[in-house]
């Protein structure tokens, strides 16, 4: 057993035996977040396809999905391979397909018997997918990506000619499964009413696109929407068949700033060690810089800027106004939030702190595993996770 780092025996919670920085996952908070979203989706009477891009772990996936075979959403083909190999068969790869990736998609479908669908938003992609499907004899299931709010990619819901054209080219060789939307502009909101309106805009755009396809005699059995903010704030989902969301599993400071979770709901944190001080500057130095936290500064545009992360004590309780104010590659600089009247805590060298991330996806991507805390706050398990494409 490693020696205590801050006056507590390493065996009390197991944290003193861990090398820092490392990624902690609070299983009780994870379970509560999963239960809350599941209840929200069930209340609307639609199917749920959790997005596994944040978790990238079969242990988390099996808790999040409605069954061991899915359904689920992924953001990389490496994720698709990883989860399909572990029995998840109903998968949507929710990033626009590049034609050179189609053979890899086909291999996953064939090798694992996976129902892996792709998305696209252009005539060129639709033609490539149809030609590949005809050539291989594998009628690839396809969603047309629709843009509800100008945030990212997708066909405008009112562009009926393009929607019909894409749908017709897909149907000529592949399987047109439906439309898929992501209301990414919701990440810039915080007012509950505005978030509810964003969810309604996403729903309306989805129905408009679906109706255009069906009016042209094209199939649209699945109408899929999803983001954690809109899924959390939707008033109703009439006409929608499935919801996707991912970061809700862990929560993060951006989601707390939006109002999709509370700071106390955040299930992931980075365990770091105090390695020095700069009393002249009011700094506490840790071994968790941007390589440990990521460079994400997503709260900078919100009402409360959390720097590179909010600092908590070893038990996970936030210190008043203590944030990671600066980050170098391997050094995190803890300081009180500008303008704060709080007293800087006395954290001797060797003290363990936990840092809540701005963006759970980006922070988790720095690590190959989770150190899982049980309901008593003890480090009780290690769950592997993957990275890459």
From TrEMBL:
It comes from the Bacteria. Residues 267-374 form the D-serine dehydratase-like domain. Transmembrane segments: none annotated. SUPFAM superfamilies: PLP-binding barrel. InterPro entries: Ala_racemase_N (IPR001608), D-amino_acid_metab_enzyme (IPR051466), D-ser_dehydrat-like_dom (IPR026956), D-ser_dehydrat-like_sf (IPR042208), PLP-binding_barrel (IPR029066). This is D-serine deaminase-like pyridoxal phosphate-dependent protein. The lineage of its organism: Bacteria, Pseudomonadati, Pseudomonadota, Alphaproteobacteria, Hyphomicrobiales. Keywords: Lyase. Belongs to the DSD1 family. It holds the Pfam family D-ser_dehydrat.
């Amino acid at each position: 057993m490693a020696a205590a780092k801050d006056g507590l025996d390493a065996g009390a919670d197991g944290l003193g035996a861990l090398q820092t920085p490392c990624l902690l996952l609070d299983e009780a908070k994870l379970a509560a977040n999963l239960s809350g979203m599941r209840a929200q989706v069930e209340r609307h009477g639609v199917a749920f396809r959790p997005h596994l891009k944040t978790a990238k772990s079969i242990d988390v996936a099996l808790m999040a999905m409605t069954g061991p075979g899915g359904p689920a959403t992924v953001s990389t083909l490496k994720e698709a391979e990883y989860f399909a190999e572990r029995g998840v068969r109903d998968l949507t790869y929710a990033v626009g397909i590049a034609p050179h990736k189609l053979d890899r998609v086909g291999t996953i479908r064939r090798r694992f018997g996976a129902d892996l669908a792709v998305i696209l938003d252009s005539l060129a992609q639709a033609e490539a997918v149809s030609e590949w499907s005809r050539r291989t004899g594998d009628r690839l299931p396809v969603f047309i990506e629709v843009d509800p709010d100008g945030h990212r990619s997708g066909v405008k819901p009112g562009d009926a000619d393009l929607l019909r054209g894409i749908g017709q080219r897909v149907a000529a060789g592949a399987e047109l499964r439906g439309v898929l939307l992501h209301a990414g502009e919701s990440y810039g909101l915080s007012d509950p009413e505005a978030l509810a309106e964003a969810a309604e805009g996403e729903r309306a755009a989805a129905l408009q696109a679906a109706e255009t396809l069906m009016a042209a005699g094209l199939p649209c059995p699945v109408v899929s929407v999803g983001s954690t903010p809109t899924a959390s704030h939707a008033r109703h989902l009439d006409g929608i068949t499935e919801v996707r969301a991912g970061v809700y599993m862990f929560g993060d400071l951006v989601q707390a700033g939006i109002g999709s979770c509370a700071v106390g709901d955040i299930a992931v944190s980075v365990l770091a060690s105090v390695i020095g001080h700069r009393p002249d500057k009011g700094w506490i130095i840790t071994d968790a810089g941007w390589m440990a936290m990521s460079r994400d500064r997503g709260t900078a545009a919100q009402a409360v800027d959390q720097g590179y992360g909010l600092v908590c004590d070893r038990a996970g309780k936030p210190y008043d106004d203590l944030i990671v104010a600066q980050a170098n590659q391997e050094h995190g600089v803890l300081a009180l939030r500008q303008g704060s009247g709080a007293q800087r805590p006395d954290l001797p060298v060797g003290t363990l702190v936990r840092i809540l991330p701005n963006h759970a996806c980006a922070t988790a991507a720095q690590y190959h595993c989770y150190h899982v805390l049980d309901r008593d706050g003890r480090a009780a398990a290690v769950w592997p996770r993957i990275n890459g494409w």
